Amino acid sequence: MFGAVNVSRTRKLAIALLLASVASASPAAAASAPPVDGHWQGKTAQGLPIFFGVRAGSVVNVRWFADLGLCGRQEVRYPHAVILLGESGRFEETFEGEIRIEGTFASARRAHGEVIFPKTTGLPGCPPKTITFHAVPRR
């Protein structure tokens, strides 16, 4: 009987530890630190640069380059952009009703996302594009 009591206590302890680990892995507990304020830079999947700032819970002063096929290489600048960060570190904004940036801060020092050109001139060599990016704080 003593062995049965130990097994029962062991099971209870295992269940308690399992419940504690599940609770600690909840989204609220797993929230990462906010991104580092300052200048950020990175590269798009095309190997072209992307720049932005982080200030007081917002992404600011967004700039990137994109190769749009026959439409050429474009520099996209929104120096007055202020994009508020969501609780999950996500940010998104549509500029001029068309060009869009979406991103997530995976940690205080790592961001990833995509820039989206849903419309172009409509010419055959200028299709819509979605280009991924990764960025880190500038050193």
Briefly summarize what is shown:
With about 140 residues, the chain is α+β, with helices and mostly antiparallel strands.
Element order, helices and strands? HEEEEEEEE
β-strand percent reads over 45%
Proportion in helices: 10-25%
- The rough form would be described as elongated
Structural class, judged by helices and strands?
A: alpha+beta
Q: Compute the number of helices.
A: 1
- What characterizes the major β-sheet? 8 strands, antiparallel
User: Could you state the oligomeric state of the chains shown?
Assistant: single chain
Question: pLDDT under 50 segments (min length 5)?
Answer: 1-7, 13-31
For the residues shown, what is the average pLDDT?
82
Separation, N- and C-terminal Cα atoms: 65 Å
Number of E-state strands: 8
Give, in spatial order, the strands making up the sheet with the most strands: 4-3-2-1-8-7-6-5
Rg to the nearest angstrom?
Answer: 23 Å
